[in-house]
Amino acid sequence: MNRRRFMQSTGATGLALATLPTLVDSFSVKALASGDTGLEQLLDSTDRILVLIQLTGGNDGLNTVIPYTDPKYYANRPTIAIQKNKALRLNDTLGWHPSMSGFRSMYDEGRLAVVQGVTYPNPDRSHFRGTDIWLTSTDSDVFGSTGWVGRYLQTMAPNYPQQLPEHPLAVQIGTSLSLGFTGPNGAMGVSFRDPDEFYRLVNSGGGGEEIPPGNLGDTPAGREVDFMRSISRASNVYAGVVKAAADKAVTPTTQFPNTDIGNKLKAVAQLIRGGLKSRVYMVSWQNGNFDTHANQVSTADTTQGAHAQLLAQLSDAVSAFMSDMKTNNLDDKVAGMTFSEFGRRVAENGSIGTDHGTAAPLFVFGKDVDGGKVFGNDPDFNNLDERGDLLMVNDYRNVYASVLLQWFGTSKTTAQSVLYRDLMPSMLPVFKSTVSVNEDATPARCSIISMSPNPASGPVAIRANVNHNAHVGLTLSDMRGRIVRTVAVDAWTGLASVDVSGLASGTYVVTLTADRDVTHTFLQVGR
What we know:
- The chain is built from 13 helices and 22 strands.
- It is α/β, with parallel strands linked by helices.
- Strands 1, 2, 6, 7, 10, 11, 12, 13, 14 and 15 form a ten-stranded mixed beta sheet that branches.
- Helix 8 (about 195-205) packs across helix 9 and helix 10 packs parallel to helix 11.
- The longest helix has 29 residues, at about 220-250.
């Protein structure tokens, strides 16, 4: 038995047990579930929720938000284009796919915004690579091992998993936890198909392999067993909390569509209504449904077919979800966005479909979204890349920056360290109001006063400002989110030293934590 087989066997029953990082064996369930960590107060004070909807497979943006006045759209798609008179008017040049009446209503009501031409420089047309790039918030030539949501949640809970909140920080409705929820110290959330099934499985053994008894010590086998024990124990911690929130939720008055994505958003709404304090939720289709290489539309009517059904499911499910939130006076604390690993090619293929492309629109929705607007220009068919695909209008990380800075109210320094890039002035202001931290007006309780030399190729002297009673830590991470140095800090003097000899040249993130306070800066290695 090994951890891969353990994950596969437990995942087959519908429970993703790989939901939390490894914990030391002496860390008790009682301690995990207690409200004594202080993180519960943090979750209470930051009660905004983000719902991420992944359009797995690569959504065809040109048949979603249709440039119905551009003849080149129709010239490139003689078989699959949506007729101008059937598109739902969005503005003078763009129209919604006719199956997206729910999105059209939300847009007209100012509760949904369209962000055009979203991708990144040198986009990758591989499903797996493209998805990883979006989840890790990296460039096409950087292979990240942590996710942007996971890194953000780690800043909220810098001592995680040694100190865990009573409620999970993030929830994914699905069979396995997304790379996007992986932080520097491990996974930052839980994943399950259904709250009741989650509870039943972890309280009845779950149908997984039996974990061997005994203490095998610090051996490969012992470490595997410790890993599986910790996963099983961590699942038990959150099973009751999730089940209690699901049971507490009032019966919805909104009718959710009985589809895969509709039922998943219904479960998210149930947990939010029941008081679960998780900050981020993620849902996706069960398979790569948006990979529409063939038979994307019906030959009898291009407004019908596989793609039309997916767009209808998305539009109807999100519309029902936000209606449920509004009915229960929760819509002011919930926002969401869609994302897909890439768009489709401008020109149709020979199979009544479209192949892997580049840029595509995404959608941001919620009461506080600056909706009824299109951010970015219409598709430009006169200016395509060397393969005849759309060029980038908006970098996806500019949308992430808006989520972090405007919606969650993180500081600019924290957001930059999470996204591995300078955010200004490229952030898209997709929200009407912001709860961002004013770093100039509010001095941090922990800060890095000096770091010299910078750039460096050897020892670096660091001077920090911290509370001498705080639990202080300092790490050096590469741009993939991997910790390469852990540094001791003298809390009384604020002095630390790190030797970067032997590290590859490049930019590294220096993270200083003092209890719940966290700050970041950058160190250049090499000359």
